[in-house]
């Protein structure tokens, strides 16, 4: 066998992710859990109380199911993209073998079949064309399977959502740190525009250090600490993920335990109805972030070792998150007569002499810092990768110079959200727009259009007999139509919710 043919064959069979950069399925599920469960969970108890515990339970379980369905669409599309790349590499090998026919010994038919046959295993055995070894971002999938109009809509929606997310995370962490460091805002101050000009410390004299100054220092510190992770891959955040995951579980455990203690000691103080349809738009507005992970899924699952039962593990992860959300919302809705929109505000202690309650107060006040510190690098890395897919040819990424390949896109991903939140700390409108319209597109519309286009493309390219072992269990076209109809309903609900809040 000619050396060139042997070398190309070896490359074709090589895994597309480095073994040293991989992690177990359980670490991958922790990544997904950390990305999904964030500060949005803190708005669920108040939304549950308004919409009613029965309607809220049904709605949350249904939203979890819809989100998981679209996760399976992303996984199937990623496997299709891997199949397309492998098919193209195989064609490249064949063309090179033909061009070397006169100068070198041509590979025999048996040698060619040795390379190709294991990839197509018949109607019942899954094909090795389909895999999740190579990380293919949503942007690359859009380039492969969507037309020009679809790609334009995709990148506009994705950039709005990811840039919005990074801005929201930066502002939330900076404000949380500011609230912990500075003195409490006077209760008689109702105009929020005056908060920034207040001195950070109530006993300040002379040139007072304002709350806005503290916010900006906290913002720069946070981005300075989390920003460098965008220059690396998701795997480099492993220990940060594990640490903050523990802090996150501890914070939620404290809130659930204290709510259960109140229920046992004083009885149910809250009396939420079973069904209140008028609270449905608010509930959906609170849940829009609750199951979002689709934009960063390729970067999280490609390094996982042993993906044969990935769908089952993700289903269990979603089930755990749903149970966790229900436990948090139920205990909060019945334990408190009045629920703040941000659940942690219900745990501010009234007895400042109690050192334990004082510690709990500060710990829960720092909750956004624990949750968003893990999500920020993942979102930033996802944005960086998709910007590369938009402007560069990812099939020859290593051919670009170091500045363009390693420095430019991480900076472009992090600096605009930093500048936005540095000069505009009130980003309420951005939060509503990002989490509603762009969120609906990322979670429902994009995965559905991608998987429909990917199925047609791969069927034409490889034939109907090549089996995709990562095919979604919701592969019937009726499911896709149902998702599109649900997306339309979501837009209506979100619009109603935003209109009610303006009133």
UniProtKB/TrEMBL annotation:
This is Transmembrane protein 104 homolog. It is found in: Membrane. PANTHER family: TRANSMEMBRANE PROTEIN 104, TRANSMEMBRANE PROTEIN 104-RELATED. The keyword Glycoprotein applies. The keyword Ribosomal protein does not apply. It holds the Pfam family Aa_trans. The chain crosses the membrane at residues 23-48, 60-85, 153-172, 215-234, 246-263, 283-304, 316-339, 359-383, 403-424, 478-499. Keywords: Glycoprotein, Membrane, Transmembrane, Transmembrane helix. It is a multi-pass membrane protein. Residues 23-78, 139-487 form the Amino acid transporter transmembrane domain. GO terms for cellular component: membrane. Belongs to the TMEM104 family.
């Amino acid at each position: 066998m000619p050396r060139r043919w042997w070398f190309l064959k070896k490359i074709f069979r090589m895994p597309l992710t480095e073994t040293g950069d991989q992690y177990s399925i359980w670490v991958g599920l922790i990544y997904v859990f950390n990305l999904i469960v964030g500060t949005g969970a803190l708005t669920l108890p108040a939304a549950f109380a308004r919409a009613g515990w029965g309607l809220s339970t049904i709605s949350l379980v249904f939203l979890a199911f819809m989100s998981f369905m679209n996760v399976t669409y992303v996984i199937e599309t990623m496997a299709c993209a891997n199949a397309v790349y492998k098919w193209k590499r195989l064609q490249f090998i064949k063309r090179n073998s033909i061009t070397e026919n006169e100068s070198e010994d041509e590979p025999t038919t048996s040698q060619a079949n040795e390379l190709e046959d294991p990839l197509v295993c018949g109607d019942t055995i899954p094909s090795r064309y389909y895999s999740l070894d190579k990380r293919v971002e949503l942007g690359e999938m859009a380039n492969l399977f969507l037309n020009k109009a679809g790609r334009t809509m995709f990148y506009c929606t994705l950039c709005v959502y990811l840039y919005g997310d990074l801005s929201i995370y930066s502002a939330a962490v900076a404000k949380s740190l500011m609230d912990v460091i500075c003195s409490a805002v006077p209760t008689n101050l109702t105009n929020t525009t005056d908060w920034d000009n207040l001195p950070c410390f109530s006993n300040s004299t002379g040139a007072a250090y304002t709350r806005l100054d503290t916010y900006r220092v906290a913002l720069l510190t946070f981005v300075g600490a989390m920003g460098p992770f965008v220059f690396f891959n998701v795997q480099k955040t492993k220990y940060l993920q594990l640490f903050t995951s523990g802090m996150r579980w501890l914070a939620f455990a404290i809130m659930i335990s204290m709510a259960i203690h109140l229920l046992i000691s004083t009885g149910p103080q809250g009396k939420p109805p079973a069904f209140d349809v008028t609270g449905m738009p608010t509930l959906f507005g609170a849940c829009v972030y609750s199951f979002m992970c689709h934009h960063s899924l390729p970067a999280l699952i490609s390094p996982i070792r042993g993906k044969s039962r990935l769908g089952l593990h993700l289903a269990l992860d979603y089930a755990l998150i749903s149970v966790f959300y229900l436990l948090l919302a139920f205990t909060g809705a019945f334990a408190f007569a009045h629920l703040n929109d941000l659940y942690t505000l219900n745990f501010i202690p009234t007895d400042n002499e109690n050192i334990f309650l004082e510690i709990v107060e500060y710990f829960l006040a720092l909750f956004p810092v624990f949750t968003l510190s893990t999500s920020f690098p993942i979102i930033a890395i996802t944005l960086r990768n998709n910007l590369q897919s938009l402007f560069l040819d990812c099939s020859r990424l290593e051919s670009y110079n170091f500045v363009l390949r390693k420095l430019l896109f991480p900076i472009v991903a992090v600096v605009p959200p930093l500048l936005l939140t540095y000069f505009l700390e009130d980003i309420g409108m951005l939060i509503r727009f990002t989490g509603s319209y762009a969120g609906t597109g990322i979670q429902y519309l994009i995965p559905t259009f991608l998987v429909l286009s990917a199925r047609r493309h791969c069927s034409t390219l490889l034939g109907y007999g090549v089996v995709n072992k990562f095919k979604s269990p919701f592969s019937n076209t009726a499911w896709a139509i149902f998702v599109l109809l649900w997306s339309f309903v979501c837009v209506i609900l979100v619009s109603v919710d935003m209109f009610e809040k303006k009133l």
